[in-house]
Specification:
Layout lengths: L3 E3 L3 E3 L1 H14 L5 E12 L3 E12 L4 E10 L5 H25 L7 E4 L12 H10 L3 E3 L5 H7 L4
Parallel strand pairs: 3-6, 6-7
Antiparallel strand pairs: 1-2, 3-4, 4-5
Pfam families: RNaseH_like
InterPro entries: Phage_KVP40_Orf299
Protein name: DUF458 domain-containing protein
Length: 158
């Protein structure tokens, strides 16, 4: 079972994360919210990859809360493979979270996936493929420099 960490709430399952998010949003129902999913990775010990996926709830104009989980993977990957894996992990997390919200009667949420790729640097070659994959799954996608979910929040824990 995947567990998420929170500075405020400790260790949580995905359904507990959903409950905390719901409580957070009920606290100020008139505010606009955006749920952001982002994943970042770092190579560790030459052969391992540390993946961190963050779930951020942005109370637009008034801060937010976030949760994250870490997975250490023993597969060796080149940079482009890692970027696709990051996007896939974010997509899977967003789909699972959205599913848990729908099971509880909440379906009108503003979801976005943030990827740690941009128009500059070595990842620019796969930008359109990754963006198309995420958009094709029905999600808004943000890339560098607007992808704080991956490049700032998830990155903080890798």
């Amino acid at each position: 079972m995947i567990q998420y960490k929170s500075i405020t709430y400790g260790l949580l399952t995905l359904s507990e994360v959903r409950a905390r998010i719901s409580d957070y949003m009920k606290d100020r129902e008139s505010q606009r919210y955006q749920v952001v999913i982002g994943t970042d990775s770092q190579r560790k010990n030459g052969s391992q990859t540390d993946f961190v996926t963050a779930i951020i709830v942005h109370r637009v104009g008034s801060g937010g809360i976030y949760f994250w989980n870490r997975t250490i993977d023993n597969k060796q990957r080149v940079l482009k493979q890692r970027m696709f894996e990051e996007a896939t992990r974010s997509l899977e997390t967003a789909q699972k979270l959205l599913e848990t919200f729908k099971e509880n009667g909440i379906s009108d949420l503003d979801f976005a996936i943030h990827v740690d790729i941009g128009k500059r640097g070595p990842t620019r070659e796969i930008l359109s493929e990754v963006v198309s994959m995420i958009r094709g799954s029905g999600f808004i996608v943000k890339t560098k420099p607007d992808s704080y979910g991956a490049s700032k929040v998830a990155d903080r824990h890798t």
